Amino acid sequence: MSLNWSCLLGAEKHIRSFRNKSFHIRTLGAAVSILLWIGCNRQAAPPSALAIAFEVTPQPVHVGPVTVDFTLTDAASRSVTGAHLTTEADMTHAGMSPVFATVDERQPGRYESALKLDMAGDWVIQLHGTLSTGEKLERQFELRNVRPN
Ligand SMILES: [Cu+2]
Q: Against a cut of 0.70, is the pTM above it?
């Protein structure tokens, strides 16, 4: 989880300092610790602060195999590592089956997915998954004007 560890250590010190006192004071200490912990958690950046750079190669994009790269950074521009992600590619018109693919983290915070686009036109690439913090991630990216071979 993306906790502030110094906050947690502070909470732990509270628990320790109350250990030898009466039960009621210890309970109070634990309550204070939990409040501190919740307060610290609330400072963690919301999922919306996550930035995702989307890149498709080769360019221009043609029907056939393509590589889609997603670079994930947090609000402080740090790499977001350890996410478990998959991709889904859909055309914008009705009547076609989606194409699914796995996503591998090639470098810290840089994720790669190999997709096979089997028709020219406009596609939408969806990125699904879970961050290492347990937060759900759902984003979509437009991939317009995929050219015929
Ligand atoms: Cu189509």
A: no
